[in-house]
């Protein structure tokens, strides 16, 4: 080892660390503040919807307002989270108007009970913040991509309260098989700073209790593997449903106003027939699933409600509805077999998330942060099996599969 020859590299690494630490402090702070404002806005919108049932019937009004906001901010045709992924993997540009557009549109969606999440919006907001700060600091294209990833992690951590998962998700979601470890320090620092600021300001993340975790042995492990097989299948079906419903809306109704009004009418009709339990993001269903109190068909109905709302133009993202679908599917599986519904709900949630996002490491971290470490062996089984068997489908069509899931070979293809 030649210490003298290694010194330039050590100095470069030190400069990198100091530079990105300072940038991450600013990034995490901005993401924490903006994320907190957004999180409280969504929370108050959800609460207002629960306390005022008539808001469901104002869904067409909120839909029209969402379209008008997109037109006013020149965001009609915005690709959503796909735009953020493409800005990292290619030369796609993010405009600052993306931030207020998705901020306002998501709150309007939740105000009238649309089945939509908030984490997809958080990724877009964080990516926009990262891109803006990258421009202010005159970063080159490579550094700006790192800034976008750290912004995604910072805002995701602030809003969802899972900094470990947020740290990995920002690096892992773009290209399956390749994690952008050059962004490790910025993503980790931004996620933890953003999460810390939001928690100090009173925005706390979700956490759930598994009622009983059986001792790890062959029979319960085999049942969790079976659940993961089902989770992989449902994740593929969910991705196909979301994409095909969106295509159907666009094929049959080329006018954006007609699309969102049709989606509103269909959603209101579904709510009147099946109940309002399937409105909103879906954490109410997750809580019920953890207690084993969900009907067998709940996961199918949540999939349908989500596809109708998001496909028609309502905003917020698919992540929390995905968790709700997974939890209710898992609880139904556990109830049917008489095996630990709350553990099955947790593993079902993680299996679905891994299947639709193709981010196994982030998913395992999320399991630890949402449910604790006691069920970690079962979480690892559920995530690995679902990830391997869910194929090349995903929520985000711009996500790239750099390497095969099942063979050590380069494939470089986009998600279905």
From TrEMBL:
This is Chloride channel protein. It is found in: Membrane. InterPro entries: Cl-channel_core, ClC, ClC-type_chloride_channel. The chain crosses the membrane at residues 20-42, 54-73, 146-166, 178-201, 221-244, 256-274, 319-337, 343-366, 378-396. It holds the Pfam family Voltage_CLC. Signal peptide: none annotated. It comes from Enterocloster hominis. The keyword Transport does not apply. Coiled coil: none annotated. Keywords: Membrane, Transmembrane, Transmembrane helix. It is a multi-pass membrane protein.
């Amino acid at each position: 080892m030649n210490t003298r020859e290694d010194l330039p590299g050590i100095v470069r690494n030190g400069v990198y660390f100091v530079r990105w630490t300072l940038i991450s402090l600013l990034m995490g702070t901005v993401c924490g503040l903006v994320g907190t404002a957004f999180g409280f806005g969504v929370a108050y919108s959800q609460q207002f919807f629960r306390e005022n049932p008539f808001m469901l019937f104002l869904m067409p009004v909120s839909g029209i307002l969402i379209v008008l906001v997109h037109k006013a901010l020149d965001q009609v045709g915005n690709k959503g989270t796909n735009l953020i992924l493409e800005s990292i993997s290619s030369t796609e540009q993010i405009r600052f108007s993306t931030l207020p557009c998705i901020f306002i549109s998501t709150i309007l969606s939740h105000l009238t009970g649309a089945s939509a999440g908030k984490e997809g919006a958080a990724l877009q907001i964080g990516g926009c913040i990262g891109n803006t700060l990258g421009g202010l600091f005159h970063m080159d294209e490579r550094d700006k991509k790192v800034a976008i990833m750290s912004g995604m992690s910072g805002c995701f951590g602030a809003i969802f309260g899972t900094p470990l998962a947020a740290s990995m998700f920002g690096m892992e979601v773009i290209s399956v098989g390749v994690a952008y470890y050059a962004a490790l320090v910025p993503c980790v620092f931004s996620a933890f700073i953003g999460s810390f600021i939001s928690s100090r300001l009173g925005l706390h993340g979700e956490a759930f209790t598994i009622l009983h975790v059986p001792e790890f042995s062959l029979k319960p492990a085999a049942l969790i593997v079976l659940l993961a097989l089902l989770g992989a299948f449902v994740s593929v079906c969910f991705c196909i449903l979301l994409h095909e419903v969106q295509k159907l809306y666009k094929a049959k109704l080329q006018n954006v106003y007609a699309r969102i009004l049709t989606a509103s009418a269909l959603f209101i009709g579904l709510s009147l027939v099946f109940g309002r339990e399937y409105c909103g993001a879906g954490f109410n269903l997750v809580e019920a699933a953890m207690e084993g109190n969900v009907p067998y068909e709940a996961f199918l109905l949540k999939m349908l409600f989500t596809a109708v709302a998001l496909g028609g133009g309502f905003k917020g993202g698919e992540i929390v509805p995905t968790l709700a679908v997974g939890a209710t599917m898992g609880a139904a599986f556990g109830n049917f077999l008489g095996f630990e519904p709350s553990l099955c709900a947790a593993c079902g949630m993680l299996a679905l998330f891994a299947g639709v996002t193709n981010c196994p490491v982030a998913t395992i971290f999320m399991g630890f942060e949402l449910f604790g470490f006691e069920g970690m062996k079962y979480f690892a089984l559920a995530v690995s099996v679902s990830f391997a068997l869910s194929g090349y489908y995903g929520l985000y069509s711009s996500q790239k599969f750099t390497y095969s899931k099942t063979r050590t070979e380069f494939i470089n293809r986009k998600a279905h």
